[in-house]
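User: What would this chain look like folded?
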Amino acid sequence: MKSAKTRKTRRSYLQDFKKDKDGKYVYQGSWHRYQYGQLSRQKLLIRLWMMCAVLLCAAVTAGCIPAAGMDECFYVLLPYTISLVAGISVCWSLGRLSAAGERVRSYVYETSCSKIPFRSAVAAVFAGAALLGELLFLFLHHFEGADGWAVLFLALELAACASAFLIYRMASRIRWTLC
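Assistant: Here's the prediction, encoded as structure tokens.
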């Protein structure tokens, strides 16, 4: 068991802020810098944000349409909900990464940036599970509800799954260095 001084608490990052001679708080903790091959920071963020926009728009739109199985079937609704929440979490983390600048504070890296690959993988897996759940629902009900809404739902979930996978692939290739 760790002692009280070495154990990380929820707000332990506040210990990295110290007062300077003017009485203002200054961050004195460690920093992380990221690199993605020859791609600049701005181009990387633009690509990630474009994929994130597709992920979020597709997920929200899929929840707004009256597709068969979305109102009564847990194996469609539950994976959809988890993928939507994971997609929102990816966007939140990407927002923190974008706002951080060239150098990212250690606590921002630990709580958000390093978790983008995992969160996007969760979004991709559960969007795929929602897609398969919808197909299973249509198969079990002899394609009774296979109208335009069901096809649109399947296309939107496929787009959400693909964009989340692309975010995962790009985010997992980002190289972080301590500076």
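The chain has five helices and five strands. If you want, I can go into more detail on any region.
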